[in-house]
Design brief:
mainly alpha; 9 helices; about 75% helix
Length: about 150
Amino acid sequence: MNKKVLHSAVSLLSRREHSQQEIFTKLLKKDFIADDIQPVLEHLMVKNYLSDERFAESVCRYRANKGFGWAYIKNELNQKGVSLDIINQLRNNNEIDWYLQAELAYNKRFGFSPIDNQKEKAKRIRFLQYRGYSYEQIMTVVNTGE
């Protein structure tokens, strides 16, 4: 096992959680070869220093606290190389009230001001769509705000 690769990987993981794909990509950018990286990743997974499950939980918790919905979080995890099995398991195991999260994001952005016209309503709907909330969640929050 290449010690330089190991030290670089541990250094990256000491700052924050990363997915396997992120670590692999970052190590490739540091001009390490894939044949040296793979054994290091396996070693880090065996030692539980690198875990896609833990990474997914961390991202989910962080994004939910920042006002993002499940669709946004799922897309981000997918882009970062987390498997669909882990994403589905996370979705089933988390106890986040997405309706409440949508309402909190909505109130933080728009306060309690009433919706004056259709243009304003469309703007608020687009905001929540971008944030990754479902149609039902958006309509519940927006119709409550009217």
